[in-house]
Amino acid sequence: MTQQVQTADAETALSPELRKALQGPVQFLKARQRSNGGEFLLSPIVVSRKRLEMAMQVLERQNVYDPDLLVYRTALGMIRSASLNCYIFDAEKNDTIETRMSLLQRQLGIGNACTFQLIEKNVTSLLPKSKEQLKEDAKTSLNDLLRSYRHLDDVLYRAYGGDIFAAEEAVNSLQYTISSTASFQSIIEACLQVEPTKPVAKDLTVG
Question: Is position 198 within any domain?
């Protein structure tokens, strides 16, 4: 943020010719962001949505009133994977080294391991002042998404522990997170000025 403010202040004292020259790298970066329809930046969000849809398939087969509690544990693992290291939870024995390191990084406050936050920061950093509302919308959507993940994690963890009220809430909470992810993706696509991505297929198979 400081760097952006300093750059803006400096540009007010530049000649029109030099200001135009400085716009070159910015336009280059914007073009890179939009290359292949923003595929590079959007692909983690698409993967996240697919994992959430797989978790939904698992939960929709569950009998809430005669549950297999391990189903909630399976779904919990899927949504933690889909969260892209954006909130802290207790590491499990089968977690990858990358997941454990990302959790430790967040616990220690070292850098930023949250992929959703990195995407939002990268994409909105080059938006012009005329797009300030879009930048605010992206931040709001991001915060809503992260809150939904934390809430969903809590719901599934309690359902896994046998909480019937949490079990009843699980599907709706997951659906909200799916919707929040889709909304976040739509705003990122608007920032990139690319065509909206086709809806995630729902015929995924779960082993």
Answer: no
Contact yes or no for 91/102 (Cβ under 8 A): no
Q: What is the tens place of the pLDDT at every residue in 49-101?
A: 999 999 999 999 888 888 899 999 999 989 988 998 888 655 555 554 455 44
CATH number at residue 113: 1.20.1420
Looking at the structure of the chain, the number of domains it has is 1
Enumerate helices (H) and strands (E) in the chain, giving the number of each.
8, 0
79 CB burial (10 A radius; 0-12, 13-18, 19+): buried
Tokens of 57: 């398939």
* Distant-in-sequence, close-in-space partners of 84: CB < 8 Å, separation ≥ 6: 44, 48, 114, 115, 116
**Rounded CA gap, 136 and 128, in Å?**
12
Please report whether residue 197 resides in a domain: no
What H or E segment, with its residue span, contains residue 55?
helix 39-60
- The reported pTM is 0.72
Specify the 3-state DSSP secondary structure of 92. coil
Whether 188 contacts 123, CB under 8 Å: yes
Token pair, residue 50, equals: 């697919």
- Rounded CA gap, 51 and 73, in Å? 14
Q: For 90-163, where are the alpha helices, taking DSSP H only?
A: 97-108, 115-124, 132-160
Domain extent, residue 140, equals 39-192
Angle ∠(168,171,103) on CA atoms, nearest 5: 110
